[in-house]
Amino acid sequence: MNRKKIILKNTSLGFVFKILNMGVVYFTIPFLLQYLGKANYGIWVTIFSIVNILFFVDAGIANGLKTKLTEALTNKNKNLAKEYISTAYGSIFLISVCFLIVGMVLINNIDLSKLLNVDNSISNAQLYSVFLIVLVFIVSNFVLSLYKTLFYAIQKSSVVEFSMFLYQFLVFSLVFYALKNLETSLINVAYFYGIANVMISLLFSVIFFSKRKEILPSIYHFKKERIKELLSLSLGFFVIQLCMIVIFTTDNLIISNLLGPESVTNYDIILKLFQVITILSIILLDPFWPLFTEAYQKKDITWIKKTIKRLNKLFLIVVFITILLVFLTKYIVAIWIGKDFNIENSLPYFMAAFVVIRVYPIMYMFFLNAIGKIKFQMYLYILGAIINIPLSIFFVKYFNLGVSGVILGTICSIFSMTFLLPIQTFKILKKESFQLKNIT
After folding, report:
1. How far apart are CA 415 and CA 357, in angstroms?
2. Is 236 helix (H, G, I), strand (E, B) or coil?
3. Which among 258, 328, 269, 250 has a CA at the least distance from the CA of 38?
4. Angular region, 12: left φ>0, alpha ψ -120 to 50, beta rest
5. What gap in Å lies between CA 295 and CA 71, rounded to an integer?
């Protein structure tokens, strides 16, 4: 396997498709704001982020499948690969049915207007309809979106980025049509995102299996023993994902509940601006997960060390771009959204700190995830999840930091990973190098 060629192909194509993808996303936002209005946009972002939590709660099966499927295909064991895929699809289908039932019960028994701090302009019945539509589509796509993991496992992460570009383009087309032809409606937007997501997932699932019929999932290849095997690795991923939900996806709900839906809009726009850096960094790193697994299986520790050193050097570019973006934030937002859009003066600085602290440990997380060493990372995420919400509320209420207080709470929750995960990585590599020297 030519790792350099795989990395170059996936990162270059991935960057192109992701830039196109983000271009469509950022081009869509002003139209969506115009169609919904500032308050409704904040409500939509909050609802979508709440229900979208389901994508994180797959018991870690997707991440476990990525690692196990890469191992099976590396060893050219197609029957084992088919069993992993069939078991993963079957397990996530059962989980999705449970989520649908639980979700419907919850939204029927919660005062949604009070939860989102919404005034009388939108009824509880309307909010229920939006929640239900989003829930049904998200649950449907919960199973279908496994195609992404399959493409990652065969070192074709660029295909995933292309699929996401098509999805965002379809959403933009529907929003643009609605702005010209339909009345303002949160329900319409819920249908736009849901239909687009399911259509793209179906298309790329067909594309993957049409060329790999020998590993097409089958009910006869659903193996109970593979569930246990997957979960032995996936259980840790599941706990990590639950913690990530608390740390990264509760911000909009906290802001909406404490400060109102319009504050969610202010926060979301700045977050999306700085997310460019995080997203591009993850695109760069995505191809390394299966490659780290393959290299570790073959005991190519030298390549892993050199790769991590190069990634550390590239991180300096991330820091420079992040600092530059802080000073350009007001100008970019004025051009992108409009001159009347208000920004908290401190928010870009806190967001920049969050990006730097978030991006740096990712290269080490990918390596540790790729080799299944996730227990220590899991403990750090558990600690972060415990302190995240109380800290966010504390900074907002008692320091009057507004939306900046919420991102500060998130920063405090993940800060320990920036130095503890690199230490763990270097200890593992040092131990492996020592063992290899003794063998030779």
Report:
1. 6
2. helix
3. 269
4. alpha
5. 11
CB 360 within 8 A of CB 315: yes
Query: Cα–Cα distances in Å, from 312 out to 334, 357, 360, 432?
Result: 33, 13, 8, 21
Residue 380 in tokens: 């750090």
Instruction: State how far the Cα of 242 lies from the Cα of 54, in Å rounded to an integer.
Output: 10
Work out the burial of residue 116: count CB atoms within 10 Å of its CB; fewer than 13 is exposed, 13-18 middle, 19 or more buried: buried
Which among 152, 265, 135 is positioned nearest to 197, based on CA atoms? Answer: 135
Tally of CB atoms within 10 A around 68: 27
Coil vs helix vs strand at 158: helix
pTM of the full structure: 0.76
Structure tokens at 205: 């699932």
Tell me the pLDDT band of 64, cut-offs 50, 70 and 90: confident
**pLDDT interval class at 87 (50, 70, 90):** confident
Residue 26 CA to residue 46 CA, distance in Å, equals 18
Helix ranges restricted to H, 399-416: 403-414
* pLDDT greater than 90 at residue 358: yes
Q: Which helix (H) or strand (E) holds 192?
A: helix 186-210
Q: Which residue has the tokens 């530059």?
A: 324
Residue 118: name the closest of 186, 55, 192, 175 by CA: 186
Residue type, 260: G
Q: 322 by DSSP, 3-state: which? A: helix
H or E element, residue 246: helix 224-248
Question: 274, 352 in Cβ contact below 8 A?
Answer: yes
Cβ-count burial 362-382 (b if 16+ within 10 Å, e if not): bbbbbbbbbbbebeebbbbbe
| Residue-level pLDDT at 239 | 82
3-state secondary structure of 306: helix
Question: How far, in Å, CA of 108 to CA of 49, rounded?
Answer: 19
Tokens of 55: 């994508």
Tokens describing residue 44: 């939509």
What would you report as the CA-atom Rg of the chain, rounded to the nearest whole angstrom? 22
